[in-house]
Amino acid sequence: MSQTVDRALSILPLLARGPAGLEQVARHLDVHKSTALRLLRTLHEHGMVHRQGDQRYRLGARLIALAQEAVENIDVRAVAHPYLAELNEACGHTVHLAVRQEDEVLYIDKVESRYPVRMYSRIGRPVAVTVAAVAKVILADLPEDERRALAERLDYPRHTPRSTPGPAAFLKELARVREQGWATDLGGHEETVNCVAAPVRGADGRVAAALSVSAPAAVAGADELMRLLPLVRRTADAVSAEYAGRPPAA
Hints:
By secondary structure, the protein is an alpha+beta fold.
């Protein structure tokens, strides 16, 4: 029975690459065509595959609907929280998880610093979108036309002398973040607070969230925080792997 299940499941990646005929499926499984046909009929009955008019098979609507439903019901916060706690244990600083909601980026989880000097933030509160590292990571993944439209309609408050001054500078920064795969906020929102962030990606490869480590400069200067960047990126990659249902990277 386990061999039958294994063979049936092996058909799905083949059809994900495009429609295939009975002979091609049998050859892929290294079985007789009658065996392949029984498997295809069973998958067809459950809506996992669909037989086209040309007698080739493709993935079925039921399978696609189930996959979409599963993705929508995965809670990135629940997946990420144990990793946030591990990251906090390793570095001691405040760790955040953030997601986008329209033109805002919100904190949805936080593990507090163990140091007495802490930064102020609150779950559910929007970040300073034009300077925050988590916002840069998330918005850098938008298609170019969406990035440009968003940059033009945002306000650019001068929180500090290091704040992003306007749309052109913001787009330039997002392009840099998109290329390098991480972002910083070194005194752009509060002169005494630094932050580094990395993306959490879903099964489609798109950025679904961002996680960050933040610390007051009195606790960790910019150079010290930048030394944590590899750890932040490895943590984000581990969250991405579990969230997307992939094996973790070696």
